Amino acid sequence: MRLIEAPSRDHYDEVVATLPYTSPLQAWGFGEARKTLGQEAHRFLIQKQGKTVGAVQILRKPLVAGFSLLYVPRGPVFENPDDLLDLPKAIRSFARATDLSVKIEPPNPIPSTDPQEQEIPEQLGIWKRAKTEQPEHTIAVDLRLGEDELLKNLHQMARRNVKTAQKLGTVAGRDENFEDFWHIFESTNERAKLGQYPKSYYTTMLNAMQGRHSEAYIVLARHEGKALAGGFFVAVGKGTYYLYGGSIRDDRLTPEGEPYKDVKAPTAFYWNAMLDAKRRGYEFFDFWGIPARLSEDKHSFGVFKMKENFGGFKLWYPAYEIDLNPLAPVVRKMLQARKRRINIKMRGTAEDVL
């Protein structure tokens, strides 16, 4: 197995988009966004016996003292997931002496039936189970179902809220107003005590993901023109993925000085985002992240319950890694301790959000 530098963006993204196990985080545009964070993006075709069997976008994340980590976000993408076992040697040929480890997040999901985490393999060949950077647990919807069946699969409360939103005049769909999305996103993060990247990261991704084989777009729910809920999506192949978003409190008053009724903007957002994706030919809708531990005391349990209302099925996307340098375990412990300190400072708990 060999890594061949991708000859062009179009060639690389075409491979990423057409393979059965894939992810938009392996698309060229996602790597361009990561460059705004000071990371390197390297794209390769994976060849075996002269045939292209996959593709991989490797990010090099710098640390202090010239060291770095290699990270493959929700990848690599393969025609046959078993080929993953042959990949370490090819990655070692790319790695530098200062690369401490390489982490992968294979995009072929493991179905989840609560609780099923113990059935996730702890090892794939020499790859060892690791902490994910992207959400390990998610909910997805099969958009190949008819619109009536999708509606039927919604929780009774969600179906009622869809109708209420329509009755009250809440509309949702693709929207080009990034600033309205940004206001919602920032407000949500501040309310939930969540971190975020610089604004340039998101604007770069929005532009860089536009291509023949991938896209990024915004969906907003509005009532009388005011954006109240929304999200940022990336898509490749047959799937679209809800990466970032949220909602804001409606502080408007009617002409009589009374608060507005709840216009069910979050429900309108999710439902219309699903319909938009279906009508554009996407078959897979990923809500992107629910808690790994489904417990009411979990910080993000409410987000999980909201997403669960839209039907769908739970999936696991575990991560695996290989150490490339003897210093890797020591640095890993230091980074984990640093993350716990940040979590405690931001939210008063060492636990991750998901």
UniProtKB/TrEMBL annotation:
Kindly give the InterPro entries that the UniProt entry links to this protein: Acyl_CoA_acyltransferase (IPR016181), FEMABX (IPR003447), PG_Glycine_Bridge_Synth (IPR050644)
Checking SUPFAM superfamilies in the record gives: Acyl-CoA N-acyltransferases (Nat)
Pfam families under this entry? Answer: FemAB
Keyword Transferase listed? The answer is: yes
Q: Does the keyword Ligase apply?
A: no
Question: Biological process GO annotation list?
Answer: cell wall organization; peptidoglycan biosynthetic process; regulation of cell shape
Question: Which range is the signal sequence, renumbered to this chain?
Answer: none
Question: What family is it from?
Answer: Belongs to the FemABX family.
- Name listed for the protein in its UniProt record: Peptidoglycan bridge formation protein FemAB
Give the species this sequence originates from.
Answer: Deinococcus cellulosilyticus (strain DSM 18568 / NBRC 106333 / KACC 11606 / 5516J-15)
